[in-house]
Design goal:
Elements: E1 2-7, E2 13-19, E3 26-30, H1 41-49, E4 53-57, H2 74-87, E5 93-97, H3 99-111, E6 118-122, H4 131-146, H5 164-172, E7 180-185, H6 194-201, E8 207-211, H7 218-221, H8 223-237, H9 251-258, E9 263-264, E10 266-271, E11 277-282, E12 285-289, E13 294-300, H10 306-311, E14 314-319, H11 325-332, E15 344-346, E16 352-354, E17 359-371, E18 374-386, E19 393-396, E20 399-402
Parallel strand pairs: 3-4, 3-5, 5-6, 6-7, 7-8
Antiparallel strand pairs: 1-2, 2-4, 9-19, 10-11, 10-14, 12-13, 13-18, 14-17, 15-16, 17-18, 19-20
Length: about 400
């Protein structure tokens, strides 16, 4: 991650972070009132892992940016955002929350949507009016006044309460001629009611998604769901690369095409003739039959554990959960004692079972087949166990993934 300074309206210093490849499509995160760029680190990390270049900055009067004596008029914030956009080498998708959503709508709707490639509005109310908004403002002020080291200047609240903001947002909404996604929590009191409905309805082609259970911040309170919806929107509306189809009969094309089939990740284990555990990572795993209960795994001919697994009368298949990615890497590598730093126990039928796995199957050897550069090991399941509260570790296109619930 790289930290640097940006210049806002009137030369105001804005502290910023950038992460991800320099040549990747940019995403600009604009936080909400009472937040800083650090509050969005988890979202920024997810975007970076998805191949995006992420820029986030502290607004004036927030975090490490300048707290100027010149004040906090709404137009000063808007001009700050325009200055940031002008400094970028490519049009970003803007992810903007609450106050940041107002700024993005005004900068793009009043100046022109050519400044950005897309817009994601996060918990963005239709204006500062209303009892609920007043409650939030009072709560923010109490937090700022009671903090030993305030993260933002409570004085800005005195200059952001004009009812004219709602009129400007309503006028800007129809001019947002770019892909727009609106995300809000189902329990939010800010983004609801006729005013909110009217504002969103005025945005051409807007996509509306409600994040179940979120109250104040859908990004922090329901991070997994939020990231899933955000990444889905980016891939559909602002993809990393233009859609491209590849074809061929060569091994590389075949392998890459197979990588489009998302799988779980397993570690196959057995005991060698001396009673020592062996194992390897494999994602070529599938069920075969329920009656009798059969499954299969494919083991590469050049795998160091292949002779033991090929001759073992019993073996185990351990399906990994998201916290076991280091374990997957360990069993996929060479030159280390894989079990020394991996919690495991001997199962009921004498196989090494990795504790903490999403699921484990103890099997007896049912059949063995040659399959080109792999052997196909079919097992009859003697015992199955699973943990219903965990989420799976996934593998797709050569990278680990996590399951997101939309």
């Amino acid at each position: 991650m790289k930290s640097f300074n940006l210049k806002g309206y009137g030369g105001v210093r804005l502290e910023a972070d950038m992460r991800g490849p320099d040549d990747a499509p940019p995403v600009l995160i604009v936080h909400g009132a009472g937040q800083t760029r650090q509050d969005w680190d988890d979202v920024a990390c997810a975007l970076e892992l998805a191949g995006r270049r992420v820029i986030s900055f502290d607004m004036r009067g927030h975090g490490q940016s300048e707290w100027p004596a010149s004040g906090y008029l709404l137009d000063q914030f808007v001009e700050d955002l325009k200055a940031v956009l002008a400094s970028l080498d490519a049009r970003p998708v803007i992810v903007a929350a609450t106050l940041g959503g107002w700024l993005a709508m005004l900068a793009l709707g009043e100046e022109g949507a050519h400044l950005a490639a897309g817009l994601v509005l996060v918990d963005t109310p239709p204006g500062p009016d209303g009892e609920r908004a007043a409650e939030v403002g009072a709560s923010l002020r109490r937090v700022a006044d009671s903090a030993r080291e305030p993260r933002w200047d409570a004085a800005l609240l005195d200059q952001l309460g004009s009812s004219a903001i709602q009129q400007r947002l309503m006028a800007a909404a129809p001019r947002l001629s770019l892909p727009v996604l609106s995300l809000k929590g189902t329990k939010s009191g800010l983004v609801e009611g006729p005013s909110a409905d009217d504002m969103l309805a005025a945005i051409p082609g807007v996509e509306l998604v409600e994040v179940e259970g979120a109250v104040h911040s859908s990004a922090s309170e329901r991070l997994e769901t939020f990231n899933a919806v955000l990444l889905d929107f980016l891939e559909r509306r602002c993809p990393l690369t233009p859609p491209e189809y590849r074809e061929g009969s060569d091994a590389r094309t075949f392998r890459d095409a197979l990588g489009c089939f998302a799988t779980g990740v397993t570690i196959v284990t057995a005991m060698d003739g001396d009673g020592n555990p062996v194992g390897l990572t494999a994602n070529s795993f599938t069920s075969v039959s329920l009656d009798p209960p059969l499954l299969l795994v494919c083991i590469a001919n050049n795998a160091g554990s292949r002779p033991v697994l090929e001759s073992a009368e019993r073996f185990a298949v351990n399906v990994l959960q998201i916290g076991q990615q280091p374990t997957s890497n360990r069993f996929a590598g060479r030159g280390e004692d894989r079990f020394a730093s991996t919690p495991w126990q001997v199962g009921e039928f004498g196989t090494p079972v990795l504790t903490g796995s999403l699921a484990s199957f103890e099997c007896g050897r049912h059949a063995l087949y040659e399959g080109g550069d792999h052997i196909i090991l079919v097992g009859k399941v003697m015992k199955a166990m699973f943990e219903p509260q965990r989420d799976p570790l996934l593998y797709f296109r050569g990278k680990y993934r996590r399951l997101h619930f939309a």
